[in-house]
Amino acid sequence: MHKAHGFRRSVLGLVVSSLCLAAFASEDPGHSRHGTAFDSGMRTKPWEMKGLGNTPFPITCKNAEVQKWFDQGNALLHSFWFEEAERSFRWCLKLDPDCAMAYWGLARCGFNWFSSLVPSLDEKDFGRYRKFLNEAIRRKADVSERERTYIEAWERGFAPEVKERREVLVDELQSIVLAYPDDSEAKALLALFNIRQGSALANQLVIDQVLAKNPMHPGAHHASIHNWDGVSPAQAIKSCQLYGQSAPDVGHARHMPGHIYSKIGMWHEAAIAMDSATRIELQYMNDRLALPFETWNFPHNRDYLGYIQEQLGMAEASIRGAKDLLASPIDPDDDAEDEYDTTRFGRSGLLRALIKFERWDEVLAADGWSWKEKDDDDKFMKAFVETVANVGLGRVVEARDRFAQLESSFDEAVKKDKNAEEFRGIPFHAAEGLLLVAEGEFLDGQRALLDAARLEQRARNAHDYPNDPPMLAWPVMRLVGDAYFKRGDYRSAVDAYEQALENEPNDAFSLSGLARTWYALKNAEQAELYAGRLAHVWSNADPGLKWMTEVTKLGLGKRPVADTLAPERVYRPQDLDRLGPSNWAPYAAPKLDVANGEGKPVRLEDYHGQNVVLVFFIGDYCIHCVEQLAAMNKRMTEFEEKKAVVLAVCSAPPSQTKASSSLKDVKIPILSDSNHENARRFASYDDFEEIELHSTILIDGAGRVRWKRTGGAPFMNIDFLLQELGRVNDEMREK
Asked: Quick one: CATH architecture of 1-180?
């Protein structure tokens, strides 16, 4: 979810049921007076968003405007846009402090479809949602019977002692549907939480009831796609065509059809979906001053787009996207195991693309990968990619040396966990097979490749193969086909390539292999058929790719032949430029117009060519603010060495900051933003509670935001700021 670090206080009205909230309130400047539950997330006012879909959910409220914001939050939840949904629900509480359903909505932002499968809802990650839910429970007597059933469904489904949360939620939601058969929202939620609980077909019947009443219900189409994803993807084509139309301004609504299209080999349509989603998300991020690590779906979406571009032969676009992810800012507080870490996505995507297009020298480049020697996964993957790359370069001795490390890592993993063989066995045996074949041990090599292929197939059949997108650069049976082809066993090659196509329909690399293999078997008709299918998939591929060049040399007809389950458009990236940029780049900083101690204006333009570390602080009465500025002041020489100036901004008038005894030893310029206009522009102001927030923002010499942190506490990791400044300077020098 969104890691905005800026949502720490919420004005819940003039009188905010203070008796209920006082138990966990905070007095610290910048922190919510209503406690830690409100001390993170979005802290600026929502706006009326368009293109979310129509999902009305009538609730009990004292202010008529609340219904509008609740409906907006509810529509956002249907598309998993949790951070923006939270912003809308908080505004409901600004208008109606005792709105039970607004608290329920806030709880659902964390107690959702994903967390319903989390083994333990620990306090660190989920404690605030427990507090939101408890506040809803306290007020459930003040709402209608129907609303109370929803609150109680979450009360029971997310009770601390419950282990099978989805089962409980499904039972509760089913009861709501039976009691209120016309409630489409209950049916849409039932269908979502019932995924994988039983028959996908039966679940679709519930979805169809929602769509019969509201054919463009975004939650129903979203649920349908997840319902069939990995089960029978073709069944979701209709919802893929309609989900993006039902919520056109939601990135995730454009993204999800790409899951289905990629699994059925409609690569052009998949690319249109993922690229549209990427651009919509980036435009939102630029408009709202959000960074890649602050939007949970963005790195996954960009990585998926890269994979699809690989399948379309658009190597350069895929590699550029992965490199942009690697170059994007990081959150220093992220857990190394965070599944939405931008660095992880960037590295895996870049390695996958380089291996797929056999750019072995770049795979073996010493810099850029940042392998962690003490990390078991990194040790394994490093040995794997170096084994495969050395095989590709014909360096068999070096490959055997790296394979020894791979084998050691594999054996260690299996000793710790026997299940590791199922997953790690796929890359391990694939690398082993490629190496043995390169060493001339064809039979042993093929046996190892087939072992890898069997493990892969078993994982795919059990829906356990990580295929969103796949970690490996190829389905292993494609490697088997390549090995048979090189040996001249063309019949076996055909069988292997065809099986590879079953796992990755319309995989262009397998299509190329089949065109060449059928030509070798002197079957020009079949060869031309596969050449035509390749020509369709790679209609906008980069020129000079060997898989197309080798087919072109055969002199076959190249009339594109689309073999897809539904008609698809051709992906032309330029057609989507109207939606926004396709790759992340630092966005322009907002206008800064503050006054120095003499009352003279200070603007960012005054520091053009210099990096600026801009600090919004609460005031000299805030102990933590003074500590932050003092810590920075001690290291001012290091900031200067990084070509950076530090500027501190607060709302106090110049005369007050100039006379401050707390800041007398601080040489950092203290600037005045007396009416909070600058704080608002930089999202450093809490519109809910109408208070200033702490912000630390890194702006490069061209006036672009490179990193930021906003919230209830000042950012104290000075080492990280200096590290990021060094990274910015390196990048600027390269350009």
From this structure: Alpha Horseshoe (1.25)
Domain boundaries, the chain: 1-180, 295-579, 587-734
Choice among 331-340, 393-402, 520-529, 562-571 with the minimum mean pLDDT: 331-340
Domains 1-180 and 295-579 are alike in CATH topology: yes
Where are the strands (E) in 535-668, listed by range?
Answer: 587-588, 593-595, 601-603, 611-616, 644-650
556-561 own/partner pairs: CB under 8 Å, 24+ apart? 556/515, 556/519, 556/524, 556/527, 556/528, 556/531, 557/528, 557/531, 557/532, 558/531, 558/532, 559/532, 559/535, 560/532, 560/535, 560/536, 561/529, 561/532, 561/533, 561/535, 561/536
Partners of 697 in the β-ladder: 614, 708
In single-letter form, the type of residue at position 323 comes to K
pLDDT over 90 for what percent of the chain?
81
Spatial neighbors of 559 by CB under 8 A, at least 6 apart, are 532, 535
The CATH fold of domain 587-734: Glutaredoxin (3.40.30)
Residue 94 has pLDDT above 90, yes or no: yes
Instruction: Determine the Cα–Cα distance for residues 679 and 673; give it in Å rounded to an integer.
Output: 7
Beta bridge partners of 612: 645, 699
Q: What is the DSSP letter of 452?
A: H
For residues 714 and 29, give the distance between their C-alpha atoms in angstroms, rounded to a whole number. Answer: 10
The backbone region for 348, taken as left when phi is positive above 0, alpha when psi lies in -120 to 50, beta otherwise, is alpha
CB 603 within 8 A of CB 688: no
From the list 305, 221, 233, the residue with the least C-alpha distance to 270 is: 305
Question: Rounded to the nearest 5 degrees, what angle is found at the Cα of 645, between the Cα atoms of 714 and 664?
Answer: 65
What backbone torsions phi and psi does residue 671 show, to the nearest 5 degrees? Answer: -115, 155
The whole-angstrom separation of Cα 318 and Cα 323 is 9
- Quickly list DSSP for 693-722: -EEEEEE-TTSEEEEEEEESS----HHHHH
Please, what is the average pLDDT of the chain?
92
Beta strands in 508-667 (DSSP E): 587-588, 593-595, 601-603, 611-616, 644-650
Least reliable range by pLDDT among 31-45, 114-128, 394-408, 538-552: 31-45
Provide the pLDDT for residue 217. Answer: 98
**Residue 254 exposure: Cα atoms within 13 Å on the Cβ side:** 24
Residue 499, both tokens:
């099986």
- How far is residue 614 CA from its own chain's centroid? 27
73: pLDDT strictly greater than 80 = yes
Predicted local confidence at residue 677, as pLDDT: 96
- Give the predicted TM-score (pTM) of the model: 0.92
Which superfamily, per CATH, for 295-579?
Tetratricopeptide repeat domain (1.25.40.10)
Residue 458, token pair as written in the block: 């078993």
CA pair distance 269, 277, nearest whole angstrom: 12
Q: From CA 685, how far away is CA 588, in angstroms rounded? A: 19
Strands 587-588 and 704-711: antiparallel
How far apart are the C-alpha atoms of 224 and 210, rounded to whole Å?
11
CA distance 532 to 350: 29
pLDDT, tens only, 456-481:
999 999 888 888 899 899 999 999 99
If DSSP codes are grouped into helix, strand and coil, which group holds residue 597? coil
What pLDDT does 367 receive?
62
Angle at CA 334, nearest 5°, toward 592 and 365? 95
pLDDT tens sequence across 593-615: 999 988 899 999 999 999 999 99
